[in-house]
Design a protein that fits this description.
Layout: H1 20-70, H2 81-87, E1 116-118, E2 130-133, E3 148-149
Antiparallel strand pairs: 1-2, 2-3
Length: 157
């Protein structure tokens, strides 16, 4: 006697695709992962911007020190206009020859804004120029708020 066997498709074989519940679970998992990764990435970008700005401040400090070495130890006096003088110093009043610039271009912070300069320094008791960035909000708070400066934060990156 021979048996006749009928092949029936299995329950799993007839099922194709994903259910709505499975798709929603995957989306929820991806959302949780994104919620953990994105803030960490943004925090690292902010840290990198601060370090880049501190490096720009340090570069301007070095240019001002170079200027002082060439000028009997005197720092350039004034405000933000001093930075332009470091780029385009003009001519020596005694010889009439062009003075070598100590900066090639306007130093900018990580947000594309020019740095600020002040000497004599009214921001701290240091006998060095005050140099600061307007910070992420791009508003000059005279070195406070989110500004990055060389008298409360280390200027070297």
């Amino acid at each position: 006697m021979t048996r006749c066997r009928i092949d029936r498709p299995s329950i799993h074989a007839s099922r194709a695709g994903f259910t709505l519940l499975e798709v929603l679970i995957v989306l929820a998992i991806l959302g949780v992962i994104a919620a953990m990764v994105v803030p960490r990435f943004l925090g690292q970008q902010q840290t990198a911007n601060i370090k880049a700005t501190q490096a720009s401040i340090h570069g301007l400090e070095q240019a001002v020190k170079l200027y002082s070495v060439s000028n009997q130890g005197e720092y350039p006096q004034g405000g933000d206009e001093v930075i332009e003088t470091l780029i385009n110093p003009g001519n020596d009043p005694q010889t009439g020859r062009p003075i070598e610039p100590v900066l090639d271009e306007m130093p900018l912070d990580a947000w594309g804004m020019p740095l600020h300069y002040e000497y004599p320094n009214s921001k701290s008791d240091r006998d060095k120029p005050a140099i600061w960035s307007s910070g992420q909000d791009k508003k000059n708070d005279d070195g406070s708020g989110d500004d990055i400066n060389n008298w409360t934060t280390p200027a070297s990156a």
